[in-house]
Write a structure and sequence with these properties.
Blueprint (H helix, E strand, L loop, with lengths): L23 E6 L5 H11 L7 E7 L4 E7 L2 H4 L2 H6 L4 E7 L14 E4 L5 E7 L5 H11 L11 H9 L7 H8 L8 E5 L4 E5 L8 E5 L2 E5 L2 H6 L3 E5 L4 E6 L2 E6 L7 E2 L1 H6 L5 E2 L2 E2 H15 L6 E4 L5 H11 L7 E3 L12 H5 L6 E3 L1 H4 L3 E6 L6 H12 L4 E6 L21 H4 L2 H8 L3 E4 L2 H8 L6 E2 L1 H4 L16 H7 L17 E2 L3
Parallel strand pairs: 3-24, 14-23, 17-20, 20-21, 21-22
Antiparallel strand pairs: 1-4, 1-10, 2-3, 2-4, 5-6, 6-7, 7-8, 8-12, 9-10, 9-11, 12-13, 15-16, 18-19
Helix pairs in contact: 4-5, 9-10, 9-16
The structure holds iron/sulfur cluster.
Family: In the C-terminal section; belongs to the purine/pyrimidine phosphoribosyltransferase family.
Keywords: 4Fe-4S, Glutamine amidotransferase, Glycosyltransferase, Iron, Iron-sulfur, Magnesium, Metal-binding, Purine biosynthesis, Transferase
Cofactor: Mg(2+); [4Fe-4S] cluster
Length: 508
């Protein structure tokens, strides 16, 4: 039975979700350390990247054991579970689903045994775009088998890595990784070795850190900080790293063509994380400054939509000279994650999440700074709530350009048709959300704030230029494998047995 931790999540109001992150990964090789606990705290630091499921794989040299479950990291693991996960290397995963539904079978790390008697466990941040092709390859190897059915791209990769008993995992990785298309920051392991690999575009982050007695890899530098590891460097795009008692080996499986996700700076990454040498918090403050310079307005108070709008609101206030204040309080502890809200509660909508400070707001002309607009439902409710609380004007400022295109590399925004900026121009969106004015930061100013060369960034959700080619429409999307299994538009394929099926522990 999963335990609620009292925190409000988007589960409470599924009609009103913002961008959903695509997972956090963590790996550690450290003989003599409690690797399961290090992984637990690493995942805890990465919880913002995925809240649907969590899992840890561990090895003491004789076999790989996986424990995974739906829920938050703090709900899935307790002292006794962690104490049962003994070993010298471990990987972990916090999941938000981008390919395959939110089911136990799709939780990670995935696990697959080879006929040579070894095991492969794998955790993935990102999303592949040649999933259909990979499913056919797996089917052709004949390694699909009985067992619980998983429908995620990660399990296909695990199957391919484990498909040839005569190859070492390292050899298999060097053959399989170049055949993958899309975004992948992987951590994976067998009984003895920790591996990390990043797609040639380096769409999702992945960093390498050093412990006194070992090595750590993680999605974000903040996870290194939390386990006391020092940052060594980023895992390079197109690089495979292997770590075992022989030390650290680095091999290149593809030429790097860097296209880091610009949305990591806007919203996804923690503010205390560093990407390509640039602090995320500093970047967000700078975006806010540029937003103010581009879109000035006469107002009395700048307030953030907490918490993701906070650094940009600070920057907006600094550059505009308008005082900064808190006008909205986030309700972090109003519901239990696994209790479905009643219809009455659901109708409260945004009030479940944010409550206005009426004394601060009353009689004021407000600038409200938020990170992005996806469907517009949140901002419409927010503007109405601020007016009811006594605001005389509400000017909405957004620290990213209009999101017009879906992401196929690991972020679940919404379908193209659901994106409000796909059908309406800025004036239309302003009218739809009921604001007195609405402005977005331009793409040029956003890029400038990251201090990254434009050519090294993916901006496809803003400009529609996808840096990794996409397959035909019917072979992409979150439920592509469910579609293939049903034979939608294709010859039905044999189901792929879940690598999580055999050898994985389940909560009794
Ligand atoms: S499409 Fe947007 S969210 Fe997706 S990887 Fe590119 S910049 Fe990031």
């Amino acid at each position: 039975m999963l335990r609620g931790d009292g925190k409000l999540t988007h589960e409470l109001d599924p009609s009103d979700t913002g961008p959903q992150d695509a997972c956090g990964v963590f790996g550690v090789w450290a003989p003599g350390e409690d690797v399961a606990k290090l992984t637990y705290y690493g995942l805890y630091a990465l919880q913002h990247r995925g809240q649907e499921a969590a899992g840890i794989a561990v090895s003491a040299g004789t076999g790989v054991v996986v424990y995974k479950e739906l829920g938050l990291v703090s709900q899935v693991f307790d002292e006794s579970t962690l104490a049962s996960l003994q070993g010298h290397l471990a990987i972990g995963h916090a999941r938000y689903s981008t390919t395959g539904g939110s089911t136990w079978e799709n939780a990670q790390p995935t696990l697959r045994s080879t006929s040579a008697g070894t095991s492969v466990a794998l955790a993935h941040n990102g999303n592949l775009v040649n999933t259909g092709e990979l499913a056919r390859k797996v089917a052709a190897t004949g390694i699909g088998a009985q067992g619980p059915v998983s429908t995620n791209d990660t399990s296909l990769v695990t199957s391919l890595l484990a498909s040839d008993p005569d190859r070492s995992l390292e050899q298999a990785a060097l053959e399989v990784l170049p055949t993958l298309r899309g975004a992948f920051s992987f951590v994976f392991m067998d009984e003895h070795t920790l591996y990390a690999a990043r797609d040639p575009q380096g769409v999702r982050p992945l960093v390498l850190g050093r412990l006194e007695s070992g090595w750590v890899v993680a999605s974000e530098t903040a996870a290194l900080d939390i386990v006391g590891a020092s940052m060594v460097r980023e895992v390079e795009p197109g690089e495979l790293i292997a770590i075992d008692e022989g030390g650290l080996r680095s091999e290149r499986f593809a030429m790097p063509e860097p296209k880091g996700c610009i949305f990591e700076y806007v919203y996804l990454a923690r503010p205390d994380t560093t990407i390509a040498g640039r602090g995320v918090h500093a970047t967000r403050v700078e975006i806010g400054r540029r937003l103010a310079a581009q879109n000035p307005v006469d107002a009395d108070l700048v307030i953030p939509v907490p918490e993701s709008g906070t650094p940009a609101a600070v920057g907006y206030a600094q550059a505009s000279g308008i005082p900064y204040g808190l006008g909205l309080v986030k309700n972090s502890y109003v519901g239990r994650t696994f209790i479905q809200p009643s219809q009455t509660i659901r109708q409260l909508g945004i009030r479940l999440k944010l409550n206005p400070l009426r004394d601060v707001i009353r009689g004021k002309r407000l600038v409200v700074v938020d990170d992005s607009i996806v469907r517009g439902n949140t901002q419409r409710a927010l503007v109405r709530m601020l007016r009811e609380a006594g605001a005389v004007e509400v000017h909405v400022r957004i620290s990213s350009p209009p999101v017009k295109w879906p992401c196929f590399y690991g972020i679940d925004f919404a379908s193209k048709a659901e994106l409000i900026a796909n059908g309406l121009d800025t004036e239309g969106i302003r009218a739809a959300i009921g604001a007195d004015s609405l402005s977005y930061v331009s793409l040029d100013e956003l890029v400038a704030a990251t201090e990254q060369p434009r050519k090294r960034l993916c901006m496809a959700c803003f400009d529609g230029k996808y840096p990794i080619p996409l397959p035909a429409d019917d072979m992409i999307g979150k439920h592509v494998l469910e579609g293939i299994e049903r034979g939608v538009g294709h010859e039905p394929l044999p189901l792929v047995a879940s690598p999580g099926g055999a050898g994985a522990l389940s909560r009794p």
